[in-house]
Amino acid sequence: MFQLWHCAEEDLLDTDNAYRLQDTGQGCHRVQPCKRVNAAMIRILERVQKQVGVWIGSSQIHLGDHNVPNALMFIDKYAQVPRICAPIVLCLDKIPDLYNGTYNNTS
Length: 107
Prior knowledge:
There is one protein chain. This protein has 107 residues and is mainly alpha-helical. It has a two-stranded antiparallel ribbon with strand order 1-2. 15% of the residues are buried. It is built from 4 helices and 2 strands; from the N terminus they run αββααα.
């Protein structure tokens, strides 16, 4: 994430990379190309695809469009993933203990 934050800041502050105000369907946003973040995400996606072998789903990376208008929105969306998934993962991790009757809630 640090690398993506760094790339996002470089994209947002790049004086040769102007934004345009646009109604994205989610309100008026600063739509700006995210060349550095896009390149970093392509590298990450390629590495993950190589590790998992078979890739199911889309490989589309939305940046600088009506879905994800700029690098800051991109970082904000993906920073929320752990907060959303953490409770689900915690519950899934506890299923074997609950099934075996060995769960001990000390909190």
